Amino acid sequence: MNKILKEKIREAYTAVLPISVIVLVASVVLVPMPTGTILMFIVGAALLIVGMGFFTLGADMSMMPMGEGLGVQLTKTTKLLLTLAICFFMGLIITIAEPDLQVLAAQVPSVPALELILTVAIGVGLFLALAIFRILFKIRLSVLLLIFYGILFAVVIFVPMIPKYSFLTDFIPVAFDSGGVTTGPMTVPFILAMGVGVASIRSDKNSQDDSFGLVSLCSIGPILAVLFLGIFFKPSGADVAISAIPEVNTSRDVIEHFAIEFPHYTEDVFLALAAIVVFFVIFQVISHRYKKHQIGRILIGFLYTFIGLVVFLTGVNVGFIPVGHFLGEQLASSSYKWILVPLGILIGYYIVAAEPAVHVLNKQVEEISQGTIPQKAMKQGLSIGMAAALAITMVRILMGIPIMYILVPGYVFALVLTFFVPKIFTGIAFDSGGVCSGPMTSTFLLPFAMGTCQGVGGDLMKDAFGIVAMVAMTPLIVIQIMGLLYGYKIKSALKRTAVQAMDTTGAGEIVEYGMEEPSNDR
Asked: Domain map of the chain by residue range?
């Protein structure tokens, strides 16, 4: 176990080091920061590495086996309503436990954090039940995506045209951001594994492809739910609270800042995980699915998950949020503010590797595709998508471009691509969008965008919020383009094989091969 933990921490170190170096170089060359602030960032990065190592190991040991076991068990019951009710409840409690949702809720003005969290959780619960229903009844993912994104964009385009609801235009970026942060380090391992468990019962050839897509559907529900919530609350960007750079003079001050926040995150994570552990105990008592050694491993996994999330959240919240805001504000108010675009590309390319849920998805994709889609290729694609998201966001903030001018054509293009790529890439792409927008996005990139917006004198509600939405959108396009290239390579390989076979066996003979061309059938 210690060997595996060391390997996870080493992987986290490799992922976090590039973004840490970028921020430190920028803080020295572009925006000089106080020594104490830089020290806090370094300590935060160290905690992030340790926390990510513990969390990824814990997720492998607890959340994924639990999700897969629940998915398999749900297919054995003949009571559809009970199955959907359990899915709704699990979506609800796991979303409430999602750390990056809590971070976002604390930064949204005028809307009480508890109301926002519960609204988002209900949206996830409803659409998780819908996602499981889709797998059980073999409904095409692309059809549901077209229907619900059609409804979503009809709401965001036409409802604000009604005079008494015109204020919803300012609430749209927050709604899309809410959909992105729900699929983070708590929900992704469970939901992905649950999809695999449900799909594994099916014996048809499309079962593995349908195991993906749960995360993508669970990202739509919160957006619709928060837009509905926006009817009752009228937020104002002036009410946004910005985290100030703390006063740090000595190393003791640094320790005190982290020590003060540590109990707070310990309590939050404990309460969040407690509900999931209680559900696991009830599930085990009823189903008797796991043997004693499996139960022990899962409980140890929960402990690792608890330690990892507490350390991770303490590190990023205390060490990253103030630095992100300060860096964005200082650069945006300088004469060379356009350097934010290439800097955003650089940060976006490397920061995706620091998202805990990304590692879970990449591993799952490689296993389900039996190595056909390697983790390295997924990592490269997501990095390109994140870099594009940060570049677009910086240009949007600097120029004051309305977010719908980007989201509408972006999602239309992504949905059109679903009809041309191999089926498995549709589910992976739309899952990737939610996975990329995790804790690093809400604790570093969102403050970075808010600082940039404040530096140029923009509207925080319209311009700063929406960065999570961008991060969630661009992988939909990049991963599906990867799918097009993958399909092309397979077709080329089949043609070469057929030509070689013709040369060997003669034109009159028919030769069968086990290699099957990816289906575009939806």
From this structure: 2-498
